[in-house]
Amino acid sequence: MANVVVVGAQWGDEGKGKIVDWLSERADVIARFQGGHNAGHTLVIDGKVYKLNALPSGVVRGGKLSVIGNGVVLDPWHLVSEIAKIRDQGVEISPETLMIAENTPLILPIHGELDRAREEAASKGTKIGTTGRGIGPAYEDKVGRRSVRVADLADPATLAARIDRALQHHDPLRRGLGIEPVDRERLLADLTAIADEILPYAAPVWKVLTEARKAGKRILFEGAQGALLDIDFGTYPFVTSSNVIAGQAATGVGVGPTSIDYVLGIVKAYTTRVGEGPFPTELDDEVGQRLGERGHEFGTVTGRKRRCGWFDAALVRQTCATSGVSGISLTKLDVLDGFDVLKICVGYELDGKRLDYLPIASDQQARCTPVYEEMDGWSESTVGARSWADLPAQAIKYIRRIEELIQCPVALVSTSPEREDTILVTDPFAD
User: Fold this and answer.
1) Mean pLDDT for the chain?
2) Which of 139, 177, 328, 358 is the most exposed place for a label (fewest CB within 10 A)?
3) Residue 151: how many CA atoms within 13 Å on its side-chain side?
């Protein structure tokens, strides 16, 4: 049976929540493989809106197993709160429907405090635009081998030792930033108190998924953010603190790369970005304002207004290559309804030279100017279209040109937040 990875192929906010929900109905297991609760997935099901941060999108579907993998960093207090919120909306969540990898690192209050203090202390031009939720510092502790992990909550001696090791690093940092030392006893007490609410969900996820594969179960691997925020291949340093690209799906849950059969890249019909960093096709004009208003471009997590611009085919071609994308899901096509002229970025000019990719050096990225190709727009509405026959001819032409430029086929087209308003071209779960 096919196993599918879903990744954002721009700077995040591409509409992954709806697509994951659309696919999850036919999956048996939905596994989240990276990121933290800085991610925001909005699902609209039968007119009911669910906003998820840490929980996999599959939790709103009955009869599915949702998994939080070891590639995620997890705030246990936020998770408990999110579970309660989703339960209040009528969704059943139990250890039979949700599992957390035992080796998942925890986000502690000290991580958020450090995150926010650093951002405040950053000089002009060096702010990252972080959500301040502690994701970056938690990943730092992971690679620094000083994390508290889910399994540590079960043993008081191990938990105390992990905290002591973490504080050897954090207290000197806090002094340098003018923050009070960590209250060790309070932190230990808070973790001890939350342990009983987290440990029932702990499981050897790698083993569960291995057995699921052997049993012919369909697994949907769900990522957060977007490939242009990848710690290695994104617009560094204005990136997230984890690997976002599809290869992380295997590492982030504990399965081999042969477990992945199809990679679906989620792509908006235009481009948006939240936070700081380069954005070659950004529009600081009426067109950018119009895209933002029509697309309701505000962050699910922060409420921040998203920066908007034309579709950047050069960047999406790049992310399709680094994630090995099999096909894309094109979302928010309806936002472009009514534009007389549409522009697509096909490359860049840098110091008098033409490039077909965005260079990795920050100074070069800042000097890149987009090279545009223009197309006629369409006046008809595409809202709610569910077949090619429902689309204006010019909208189909736009989609076909995107396929040519990014060198990757369109597998799905999304025409509204409603899950059924989707045109299926290629079934990612096809055997």
Assistant:
1) 93
2) 177
3) 8
Q: Report the DSSP pairing between strands 271-273 and 307-309.
A: antiparallel
Please, which pLDDT band fits residue 207 given cuts at 50, 70 and 90? very high
Beta bridge partners, 66, equal 30, 98
What amino acid positions are annotated as catalytic residues? 13, 41
**ω into 237 cis (within 30 of 0):** yes
Helix intervals (H) in 215-325: 248-251, 286-294, 313-322
Quote the CA–CA distance of 235 and 177 in Å, as a whole number.
27
Angle, helices 156-176 vs 109-121, to 10°: value is 10
Instruction: List, for residues 115-169, the tens digit of each pLDDT value.
Output: 999 888 876 666 776 778 899 999 999 999 999 999 999 999 999 999 999 999 9
pTM: 0.92
Specify burial of residue 171 (Cβ count, 10 A radius: 0-12, 13-18, 19+).
middle
